[in-house]
Amino acid sequence: MDSTASASLASLWDEVSGTQPDPDLWVVIATLVVALVVVVPHGLWRLSRNAITIAHEGGHGLVALMTGRTLTGIRLHSDTSGLTVSRGKPHGIGMILTAAAGYTAPPLLGLGGAALLATGRITLLLWLATVLLVAMLVMIRNAYGALTVFLTGGTFVVVSWLAGPQVQAAFAYTVVWFLLVGGVRPAFELQAKRSRGGAGDSDADQLSRLTHVPAGLWLFLFHAVSLCSLIGGGRWLLEL
Known about the structure:
By secondary structure, this protein is mainly alpha-helical. It has ten helices and two strands; from the N terminus they run αααββααααααα. The chain has helices spanning 2-17, 25-39, 42-66, 93-118, 122-139, 143-162, 165-182, 185-195, 203-211, 215-238; strands at 70-76, 82-87. The protein has a two-stranded antiparallel sheet with strand order 1-2. Helix 2 packs across helix 7 and helix 9 (203-211) packs across helix 10 (215-238). The protein is globular and about 50 Å long.
């Protein structure tokens, strides 16, 4: 029985980590267009930004755990804001990295996804995203956040288990394009809010208090990470 279980696990791993054929170029371009359609218009962005918030707060939470902090909970709100709470030293490298992880998480996740798709690992991308969403669901502490993450994770599960290879490829490319393109807009929104005197407790302002580096420089970092990720990930996806 042990050998049968081992063989089954090995077969499952081969299926998950194996490569799949790249979609046609027109599919890659079409998924980019879809991502632009849900990010650029304000009305659709107001809805789709919830997915970026999931990645944003998930980035805070993941880095908090990686730096030895205790993650106590994550909240996602209907206005697309969120809050991640962790315990540990209120200063130091762990807190700095945790605070910096929010705005950089969506574009970096998109860049990592583009790297996987460039090597044909579509199934692995879908499974990794599902695992991360399930892990995040455990830490959600409000009903709206739980519903949002559950529906997002459920979509990944349905596509991973029931959809054919072509649909999986189109879905995976759409998700990665969305993270790359959608990861650019929040930093510009934050810059606009700060120029009007708002967002006084933003991630950039928290980082400024932690490091004594001007918030504007942290905002520049957010822009640099998101734009470089979009350019680099886009080149991989388009095979330029």
